Amino acid sequence: MKDRLYLNTHDPNAAAVAKKSGFGIELDDYVYFNGIEQDEGKALFDRCAELIKGCNKLFFHGTILGTDLKMLAEASPSDIIELCNQSFVIAKSFGISHIVFHSDYIPGYSNRHEWLPRSIALWQEYMSDKPENLHVYIENFLDNNPDMMAELCEKIDDKRVMLCLDTGHACSNSNVDVVDWISSCSNFIGHAHIHNNDGNWDYHWPLGKGILDMEQILHRFESKIPSDITYTIEADYSLSLEWLSAHGFLADMNYW
Questions:
Q1: Is 254 among the domain residues?
Q2: Is 71 helix (H, G, I), strand (E, B) or coil?
Q3: Most Cβ neighbours (<10 Å): which of 17, 165, 170, 218?
Q4: Domain residues for 131?
Q5: What separation in angstroms does the CA of 31 have from each of 28, 87, 100?
Q6: What is the DSSP secondary structure assignment for residue 159, as one 8-state letter?
Q7: CA-to-CA distance for 62 and 65, rounded, in angstroms?
Q8: Cα–Cα–Cα angle for 152, 174, 245, nearest 5°?
């Protein structure tokens, strides 16, 4: 797993650990980039360039529209494409060709029968002018139905578009067991965000803290998904790396 493991830059120390230990880096400093002033943007770019310098295994977490659920549900396809294009340009400037985007399905606001064909068309349009080496991963955010996510990816019908299964989001935002999410979406998962919580809130707890049986979940990923699946730890990396070592997913060594 070591060669397929990434650390998230929510903790700025994680980048140095990743480079020292041979892990990849998922740059998430642009998640809330929408609306940032030009001077702030330049400072952010310079800081991120330094964070990832010397690492050639990179993911970019795309910018989100915001946190207001009603606004997210009402966002037009053109608004979403514009924001995703902004993330593509930024990622490209860093030499990153793997980008994670949140799904914009909002239970209680989105109508599934309207949202699904609209989202299929949106992603097909978005990818129509993108290079062959771009890989996009649609992440379950508030989504509560793995079958719908699988259908979305299947009908987009583009080998460059896969799913990013977020274990914490699946746990706190749906009533479907995470191992069943993996089974339902196994043909389309290319990346995973791994963290734990109490089932009620997206706390991003370390792998060993919470209600999720992460050992079972990781074994299910490894048995159901092709061997090139990648993982990003979206939690305290030191505690999570200790847990991975203790449970046989990483060699026992000092990673920090």
A1: no
A2: helix
A3: 165
A4: 2-246
A5: 6, 9, 10
A6: T
A7: 10
A8: 95
Looking at residue 129, its pLDDT comes to: 97
Work out the number of other CB atoms within 10 angstroms of the CB of residue 83: 19
DSSP string, 165-190: EEHHHHHHH-SS-HHHHHHHHTTTEE
- What is the token pair recorded at 245? 């070592």
Nearest to 212, CA basis, from 238, 174, 248: 174
Does some domain include residue 99? yes
CATH number at residue 220: 3.20.20.150
Stated pTM of the model? 0.95
**pLDDT of amino acid 215:** 98
Task: Yes or no: say if 170 and 178 are a contact pair by the CB < 8 Å rule.
Answer: yes
182-207 pLDDT, tens digit each: 999 999 999 999 999 999 999 999 99
Q: What's the one-letter identity of residue 109?
A: Y
| Local structure of residue 2 (DSSP, 8 states) | G
For 117, counting Cβ atoms within 10 Å of its Cβ (0-12 exposed, 13-18 middle, 19+ buried), the class is: exposed
| Residue 202 forms part of a structural domain | yes
Domains in the chain, number:
1
**Successive 10-residue mean pLDDT values, the chain, 256 residues:** 94 93 96 75 93 96 88 90 96 97 94 95 98 98 97 98 98 97 97 97 96 98 90 96 95 66
pLDDT digits (tens, 9 = 90+) for 167-183: 999 999 999 999 999 99
